[in-house]
Every structure is written in C-alpha cells, then in structure tokens.
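Example record used in the benchmark description.
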Amino acid sequence: VDLKIAVENGQVNIEIMTRDQEVKRMFEESITDIRGALENQSLKIDTFKVGVSENFDNSQQMSQQQSQLM
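Model output (structure tokens):
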C-alpha cells in the first residue's frame, strides 16, 4: 500500500494506491470511520482517492481504476 496524506488549512487530502481490489474495497468502506477520526482532530477530508494498480509505485498510475469518495 502506498499512502499519501497532505494537510493544508485543516483540509486533508488522502491518496491510497494498492495492488489488491479487496484492499481498495476495505479502504472505501472505512471512509466514514476515517472521516470521524479526523473530525475529532478538527480536520476535514477534502479528497479521498483509492486506486488499484499492479505498479502502484508510479504516481501516474493513480488514475487507473480510481475512486473518489465524498
């Protein structure tokens, strides 16, 4: 799993890349819990992206099978 998190002015941007569709599904199903935990710290999710790629080390692969949840 490749995880990128950026925080700016209380806004959180999360990008997750994995090789496994099941792992992607688990992250997508956890968005409510993740959002709640961050809000408890006075942070708000601006973007949450989860992608699947056999070569997730290449950041340009993020657009492959990407989900954006809000």
